Every structure is written in structure tokens, then in C-alpha cells.
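In the previous chapter we treated chains in isolation. Here, by contrast, the input contains two separate entities that must be folded as one system, with a combined length of 406 residues.
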Amino acid sequence: MPRQVLEDILTADSIAADTALAASGDATAFERLYRTHVARVHTLVRRMLDADEADDVTQDVFIRAWQKLSTFRGESAFGTWLHRLAVNVVLARRKSVGVERGRFINEAEPLDNVSGKPVTPELSMDFEEALARLPEGARQVFVLHDVEGYHHEEIARMLGVVPGTSKSQLHHARMALRRHLDR
Amino acid sequence: MNDMWMNRLSEYLDGELDKSERTALEAHLATCGECYATLGELRQVVARAQALQDTPPATDLWAGIRGRMTESTPIAPRRDRHDRLVRRRFSLTAGQLLAASVALVLMSGGTVWLALHERPSNAPAPVAVRQPRIATVASWTGSTDAAIADLQATLDQNEKRLDSTTVRIVRQNLAIIDRAIADARIALQSDPGNAYLNLHLANTMRRKVELLRRVNSMAAARS
């Protein structure tokens, strides 16, 4: 058996074992799950919200996971379950702090912040920076659709909009980000 | 620029236009260089998004999480572990949990072994640590090998008493264990006195014995 295949099997099995142990109250097993998944969760949160919120919200995600582990039935991989939980925590955070303003693009100004072609290298942004400067609504749709692979119908349900709005936001985000492809 | 089609390029890219719209847009693309070029850029944006890498937080967040876990222990009441796993209908069977725990032990051992043996050539040499003297491989594995051979022969005879799913899981996990044993033996050939590798091999062989005994007991119970 190729070593990589063996490692993948062992990794999946060890995560399953740690999930069962953590669900029974084993904090050490939960720490191993944290270390395996923290980069994925933190990156998702950082892209969906402002960077300065990422640490706090990532901690909230793992606390929520710890509290809800007893509801995890293993019907999907733990990573998939955790990822969906993270999305829910992010969206709940958005509502709880009332970040409604600027959620969807109604004006050109926010997009102008990212869509202009930089004149000098000093003014250039890399792709992640440009993504972070998108208006929140466009950013979240872009991250959920193009980075995380959700469909418009799912995104519309999660964000409380119609699928057409999700499609429109995605297109605006892509149009803005195409200026930053080569950086 | 034809704004109507420009605004539909993402839907075209995602395969969300119906046939007539797709045909019309493709006809437009054949005559509009700007839309054609933009479509290419949008494709690159999607590819770039899919290639983005995850990065860990700049600081370790575990301490804060651990502290809050103490404040908010799992919402389900603590019970005996076995009782709890059964009650909450976790999808892992007892056999799968056993296999997973075996894999967990092997994984940790395998990871350390890999770390020991795949160190980049330009990495600093590890600090020499005096290791306790232990018996070399040949002096202690013989009797375990014999026990494993006996148990394996018994299993070969009893296997038909087990259901196919159990047999499949057992075979998969025996294959994992065998691979770990083989890796450890290979590593020990070049470093026979390595305490960690000897201990890892001993633990792995013990796991194989335990697994074989347990499966044989299951088979005997069904005779």
C-alpha cells in the first residue's frame, strides 16, 4: 500500500477515534482535533469576517463544537461537520453584531476600493488582500461559492437572500478580483 | 461593451444559463473581444480561489479555548464512556472504535518514525540523547511472532463464522498493523538499539495479538 494512502487511512481513523473520545469528554483528544482543523477554520473565519475578529470567532467555533459534539452522529466527516458549524457561527456573528450595513453591493464605491488597477507595485494588493476589501456581502458569497464550494441555493438560504442576489454578488466580486490576478 | 452579456458571464462560467441563453452568449463572445477576455479573467479568478491555501492563526488559540471549555463542559451529561457512545447512536461500531484506536496508536508511532527518517538533509542534527539499553529485536520478537502465527492460523479457520463486514474491517486493520510492523523492522535494521523503535514495534505487535485474540473470541462465540 502506498505510504500516502496508508497515512490518509490512519489520519481518518485517528480523527474518528479522537472525535469519539472528545465527545465523551476527553479534552486531550479535542485538542488534537483543534490542531488538525484550526488552520481551516481560522482561514474561513478570516475570509468571511474582518481579520481582527478571526481569533475570537475561531475560539467560539471550537467552543461551540465542544458543546455540540454529542449531536455529531458521524454521518459526515468531522471536518465537514466542523466546517458547517463554523459557517453558522460566522453568520450568527454577522447578525448579532448588526453588520447589516454594506452587506450587499448597492453602490460602486466599495468595489472601487478593490477594482482599480494599481499604478505602482507599492500600491498593489495580493489576491487575499483584495478579497478582504470586498464589501461583506460580496466577500461572503465569493468565499462560500468559489472557495468553499457551496451552491447558490444553499448560500441564499444561509444569507437570507434570493439565489439571484447570490449570483449577482458573486459576479461583482469576481469582476473586482480579476484585477488582482497577477499578484 | 455589451453590459447585458457582460453581467451574465459568471452564470455562463458556472453552467447556469439555459441552452438558448448559452447559445446566444457564445454567439456574442465570438464577436466581442472584451467579453471574451473578461471571461478568461473570470476563469482565472475561480481557479485562484480554489487554489487558496489555509493558514493557521498567528498565535495559538488553544489556551483560550481550553479555559472556556472548563467553564462550559459538554452539554450532554457525563456518563460512562461506553454507555454514552451507545446511547447517542454514534455511527462508529465497537469494532470500528477498536480499529480506530489501533490506528491512532499506529498513527502517532508512524508520524514520529516518519519525522525521524525524513528529516531534510540540511536540518540540524538532533542532539544526542543517551537511550536506555534494551534488548535487540531478534531477542524478543521470536515468541511473539510464533504467537501471532498461531492466532493467525486459528483465525484463518474461524473466519467463515464471521460476517463479511467484520472480516473486511479486520483484514484492513491487520494490513495496517502489518505495514507498521514492517516499517518498524526496516527502521530497526539500521538502528537496532533504538529504544523508541523497539517500543513501537513491541506495542504494534501487542496490538496485533490483541486484535487476533479478540476476533478469534468473537468467532468462537458464534460457533
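The longest helix of chain A spans residues 27-48. The domain at 109-180 of chain A is CATH 1.10.10 (Arc Repressor Mutant, subunit A). Compare these points with the single-chain example from earlier in the chapter.
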